Amino acid sequence: MQSGKHKAGLGSQMAYGTCEFFNGGAFVIINAFFTVFLIKAIKMNPALAGTVPLIGHIWDAVTDPMMGNITDRTTSKMGAKRFYMLIGAVATGITFATLWVPFHANGSVTMFIFYVIMYCLFSTGSTILMVPYNGLLPDMIDDYATRSKFSNVRMIWSTLGSMVCGVVPTILITDTRNKTVYLQCGIIFGLFFLITSLITVAGTWEKLHPATKSKLSDSFNHGGSAFRSRSFRLFIGIYLTGQCATDFVSGMAVYYVDDVINGYKNHYVTYLMAAMIIAQLIGMLIWGPVMAKTSKRTTILIGAPIRIASTLLLIPFSHEGASIVPILILAMGIGIGNAATLTSIFAIMADMPDVDELITSVHRPGVVSGISTFARKISSGLSSWLIGILLAAVGYSEKIANAGDRQSLFTQRGIAGIYIFMPIILCILLLVFAYRFPMTGREFNVIKKEISRRKGEDSSTATPEEIKICEKVTGIRYDKLWDPANQWVGNHH
Question: pTM to 2 decimals?
Answer without folding.
Answer: 0.86
